[in-house]
Amino acid sequence: MSWLDVKLQAPAQASFRAEKLTECTLPITLVLLEGGVVGVIAAKIYQVSPLTLAIISAAPMFANLSSFAWNRVASGRPKVGLACLLQIGILLCVLAVAVAPINDTGAVVLVASMIVSRILVAGLITVRSVIWSLNYTRSNRAQATGQLQMIASLVTVVIASAIGPILDRYPDGMPWLYAVGAMFGLLGIVFFRRVVVLGESDHLLQETEANNQRRQSVSFITILREDRRFAKYQMSMFAAGFGNMLIEAPLIFLVTRELSASYATSITLTMVIPFAVSLLSLPLWARYLDRVHVAQFRARQSILWVLALTLTLIGALLGSILWLAISRFVMGIARGGGSLAWQLGHNDFARADQLSAYMGIHVTLTGVRGAIAPVLGMLLYTSWGGAADNGVWLFAVAAFVCGLSGIGFNQLYRQMKRDGSIKLSPQSQ
Fold first, then answer.
1. Rounded to an integer, what distance in angstroms lies between the CA atom of residue 123 and that of residue 108?
2. 10-418 has which CATH code?
3. Are 90 and 121 in contact, with CB atoms under 8 Å apart?
4. Distance CA 168, CA 333 (A)
5. pLDDT at 328 (0 to 100)
6. Taking CA atoms, which of 25, 87, 169, 269 is between 20 and 30 Å from 125?
7. How far apart (Å, rounded) are the C-alpha atoms in residues 273 and 260?
8. 137 to each of 7, 107, 360, 419, how far by Cα in Å?
9. Phi, psi of 77, deg, nearest 5
């Protein structure tokens, strides 16, 4: 099967085409709320404090704390309609930034809009994960969603690459960028309304029955206690995410303030390179994930996290844009696989009636680590004196933590292989 020829059922093919059209437009809106873009804009236009930069980096992950609540909201409700409502909310957040003044009030609106929008994105991710689980089988799910991510990443790279040069030439043009982005978001909603969820009626009955039996409404602590393998998987996920999120805010501070890079260079390092390389690596990662259990997949992929963070350390020590660019290249390869496993990994553990609950747990724990790590990372970096002193060793700490996650994934994989519990489709083919 070629990368561009994902064999789906006829009804799923029509929805797949609608989703691909959405991914051509909605990311134009979403990129304006990505941490790399917002962080650079906040640092250079609004001159915000290092702590505010940390909050901006934490916002997307902090918002994920709402995911388990979104699971309850989505349970028993048609998924496409809810997804469209969430996209409308995101669009309104972008419009709020477009009309806000370029002053301290505007900075507050920018940060608040990003936080609210990311809460809505957390809901959108939770809902779409159910749609993907129903429309695509275990044997082609990674390739199908990988294509969607590939399109979204390509659009993100193109738009992010354009934002930097535009702002370098027209520093006052930021509101117009956000206004145009909102218009494209509206098109994304129009396209997404065409999506049809296969077997949704039966699935909604399953969710409703599960709710009635209080299986879905039980706390995520109970699920983690009952499913020890999923709990171990999430422990390693927590370490991997924590290590990576430690460096996000310090990296923006290093590039924009300490190295005084331009808009174009700053956004290229923080967003464009990782997204572009992620885009190129997605086909290979997708084929691999469709063949192996996510625990094995993550054990291999974690090696690249460690390498990327080690190269970041070298770049920070040398104050070298080139070495930082190399580190972001490797980071992009790792993110290509990481993004797929992040969205699909829970499917290798969950029952069919608990897909939303498992995804909610996963995204919520992502929010916990993401709310803590960027702030802690920036506090450590600045208190250690930044790149000029000992702050660079934060990148070594991050690499060590990611190394621990890789060991955890590998141990889980070996344990599941020994006891014969590895199977590619816990719920259905």
1. 23
2. 1.20.1250.20
3. yes
4. 28
5. 96
6. 269
7. 18
8. 10, 44, 20, 25
9. -115, 145
Contact 42, 351 (CB under 8 A): no
Q: How far apart are CA 254 and CA 369, in angstroms?
A: 22
Amino acid identity at 150: M
The model's pTM is: 0.70
In the block, tokens 């190269």 appear at 311
Rounded CA-CA distance 98/110 in Å is 9
Residues of the chain with confidence (pLDDT) below 70: 1-7, 9, 60-62, 67-68, 210-220, 353, 423-429
Give the separation between CA 169 and CA 185, rounded to whole angstroms.
Answer: 25
Residue 349: φ, ψ to 5°: -125, -30
CA distance 143 to 159: 24
Cα Rg of the chain (Å, integer): 21
CB burial of 165-181 (b: ≥16 within 10 Å; e: otherwise) equals ebbeeeeeebeebbebb
Query: Within a 10 A sphere around the Cβ of 225, how many other Cβ atoms?
Result: 10
Query: Which ranges in 247-392 belong to alpha helices (H)?
Result: 248-253, 263-267, 273-289, 294-318, 321-344, 355-383
In this predicted structure, what is the pLDDT of residue 401?
96
Kind and range of the H or E run holding 80? helix 79-99
